[in-house]
Amino acid sequence: MKVLIKSAHKSIPKELYFTLPSFSIITGLNGSGKTHLLEAMANPQLSELTIEGQTAQNISLIPYNSLTPQITEASDNSSIIDTIQMYWSDISHHLSMWAVSNPSTALPENIIEDYLAPAFGTESPGVVAVKRFIKHTGKKATDMGLEDFHNFIDITYSKENLFASQCAMAFKDYQRRRFKNEVSEYLSAKYPARNISYLSQEDFSEVFGPPPWELMNQVLETSGLPYRFNDPGEDDPELPYTLRLINQINGRLTSASELSSGEKVILALVLAIYNTGESGTKNKVILLDEPDAPLHPNFSKMLIDTIKEIIVGKSGVTVVMTTHSPTTVALAPENSIFDLDRSSKHLTMVSGHRAVQVLTKGIPHLRVSYENRRQIFVEGRYDVEYYSYLFQIINRDNRFNYTPIFVEPHSGDTNCSDVIAIVKKLRESGNDLAWGIIDYDNNNKSSDSILVLGENKRYAIDNYILDPIFICLALIRTRKKTYYDFGLSTGKTSYTEASNLRNDECQIMINSFLIQCGFDLINLETVHWENGFKLEYPGKFIQYQGHDYEKLITTTFAALMGLRKNNRESGLKLAILDIIDDFRGFIPVEISQTLRLIQNT
Fold this sequence. Notes:
Elements: E1 2-5, E2 17-19, E3 23-27, H1 34-42, E4 47-51, E5 54-55, E6 59-62, E7 70-71, E8 74-75, H2 77-101, H3 111-120, H4 125-137, H5 146-152, E9 164-165, H6 167-190, H7 201-208, H8 212-223, E10 227-229, E11 241-242, E12 245-247, E13 253-254, H9 261-279, E14 285-288, H10 300-314, E15 318-322, H11 326-331, E16 337-340, E17 347-349, H12 352-359, E18 373-377, H13 381-398, E19 403-407, H14 416-428, E20 434-439, E21 450-453, H15 461-465, H16 468-477, H17 503-516, E22 524-528, E23 534-538, H18 539-542, H19 546-556, H20 571-582, H21 590-600
Parallel strand pairs: 3-15, 3-16, 6-14, 7-9, 14-15, 18-19, 18-20, 20-21
Antiparallel strand pairs: 1-2, 1-4, 4-5, 8-11, 10-12, 12-13, 16-17, 22-23
């Protein structure tokens, strides 16, 4: 992002020009002007922010101590229905007016872009509902009725703020939809002649997803906050619903407004994660003034990870934050920290180590340790992607006490000898935080600082990522294959039902897959999974060269080529890592064991 300060603002001079990455952290001594700079950047009259050649239009400044969750805590059926009716009245009126004005003209395919969006906005709930109706039914906009509109509108969408949510309305609306569907199912069985339509439980989950309170509570659990949202569940759907947080320690019901300032920051991040998954980008640029100020240092990593991976990485938002915290800059990604000079107001990219020195200057006994970081060399640039993703997945359950920085040797080749050589040099120079992870390749052995992934267990990381169970599930998820195609006749049909697979069912699927690939089920070796399952794999599979194995399975199951995320060597494996993320209990234990060796040494 390019920034030009057009007019002076407080301590910030005009004609200041600088470039920032998509996530940047501005630090500096007190009085350097960090808050003044954010204020100038947030005001289009004072500055111009340009991203990829386009002027940023949607810029949000969240001042000091203002990163708080904005939650609507009460809702009832009448308010939901009234809101839906209001949107429907506007949409149906405009569609009717178009038909009256164009009686002999067929409805154009671009009626949304040319007619509805200019009137209501591209992301307004009513327009989004029409888009969803057309997409899921294949019908025209004028075919939509009030009942259809009810089914496809999301009245809880808030395009202005990632940190806001109409949680109570979202929970109540889901409860209302589910109850209405259950009534229709009951009436359909009682009066079959009426042809009353309803969704099966599986289809309902497919269309509307899981209960939103379950999703929110999963994120709350991950965050470490000892609260869960109360579940409207089986309560009378006609009664009003008041949202509360249940303290998991003492059972007390708490309003979000009663949380501590640090807890409010974490809850705001929880909302950002949920909103990103639900509705996508809502701000082009977010400016955060010391959002970590009320946080315990333990939560600084969650703040950084949420901003970097969810708000920036997934939602595509550009984020600039300021900080005075040595802990925050110590955890910051490389090339993201900028020091604001108090005199010149120039921004200079600095290392985390340098930023910590600036923030702790004059306090000789305060030091921020980097000993929780590990520099881990792997065999190539694709392995950096694989290990980074795997660590992120496994860390949710293992909670490692270090932060890995996976890097390639930069030799241009993919081989273990370069990893061994560079780690040896770093260790000899006194860097005892440098490690290497290499493939087994049927002959490598671990040493003090070089770890072999799957030593005597599996040929390479490719064989782990492309494990038969994950390939089966990838093909089932994309409906290229079914459970039946892999030997199961237990009635399972949907991808999500894989979470209920038993040990013996997994073995049946693995055996079927391996037989289809030409493996004989002989010389079996036991493989242990993270969830405690024990599976038998033939020795030939264990020893199969990684790249040759990928060629074998893509030849046997040509549909796998269509799953690739890109046309590079990493394309298929990155797609399968998404499957692994969904079912991390199926990961063989050797990966976490290897990562734990780095933690324990």
